[in-house]
Design goal:
Two copies of one chain form a homodimer.
Chain A (H helix, E strand, L loop, with lengths): L18 H11 L2 E2 H7 L10 H13 L3 E5 L10 E5 L1 H34 L11
Antiparallel strand pairs in A: 1-3, 2-3
Helix pairs in contact in A: 1-4, 2-3
The structure holds a DNA duplex.
DNA sequence: CCACACTATGTGCAGTTTGTCAATAGCCAA
DNA sequence: TTGGCTATTGACAAACTGCACATAGTGTGG
């Protein structure tokens, strides 16, 4: 690895995609601006999210009617800001997401468990030569 | 939901992408044919994977030198089969994947925990009307 | 022998998702 | 008016996905 990772995607390649559920959860807590959400994503270990991705996700969720947005009347420094607010539908979706995430966690646990067991037993290691 | 889910993606939208790590783990156990791997993915809850996706993933991993393939001399029913074999590099990648998965699991746990706590406290529910 | 079913793998394409980069828009200070 | 900070958006290419279909060999019934 590292040495010849010329095939590296720009970044990413995470196992999980938790942006949407994290946003829904934050909004379940309270309505918020995109920028605020962006900052609070750090709590979920998503502090490295690209702003564009976050705003895009929010617009997408609005299209799907999981959230609604209104323009903030209070004007702070900067352009008009949207306030995103969870809908009842978004609430349901969040519940579904959590179920999915539970399933995902089980799968991860299974895989991780299998990996560890395998390592402890010292089996495997069916390598061939590395092509480099 | 349900009622107006016309925006539904064909399927998918799973939180996790575990195909590659699962394949690597299976190959860490022992070399195998694509078809065999395809069948054994069920163990990891990936029984619904599309064959194309699996073969494509294997070719991709070979390009990245995580695995190598050779033609199986033994001829069973059907066309010549490839035997995939983990490389030392693939072994490293698998280790990295597991680290990533551990991180992912922590994130999931955090999110799930936050969700439950929030539910128990009965806060939130900052809904607006559903746009439907 | 020929058609056909079954095993196993691979390709092509269209639609979707993602990351990166750059643009816009308003306020404020110099 | 230039430049900096706060917010939000758009455009584009690369990557990914699902689906339909092509190929290739082997065994089987007629």
């Amino acid at each position: 690895m590292r040495g010849q990772g010329h095939r590296r995607r720009r970044r990413g390649r995470r196992a999980v995609r938790m942006l949407e559920p994290a946003l829904l959860l934050l909004l379940h807590h309270a309505p918020a601006h995109g920028y605020t959400l962006l900052e609070r994503l750090g709590e979920f270990g998503l502090g490295d999210m690209n702003p564009s991705a976050v705003y895009r996700a929010l617009r997408g969720m609005e299209e799907k009617a999981w959230v609604t947005s209104t323009w903030d009347k209070e004007q702070a420094q900067g352009p008009p800001r949207r306030v995103y607010r969870l809908t009842a539908q978004g609430d349901e979706v969040l519940a579904l997401w959590t179920q999915d995430l539970e399933g995902s966690r089980e799968k991860i646990d299974y895989l991780l468990g299998a990996y560890r067991r395998h390592m402890e037993e010292g089996e495997g290691e069916h390598h061939s030569k590395t092509a480099g």
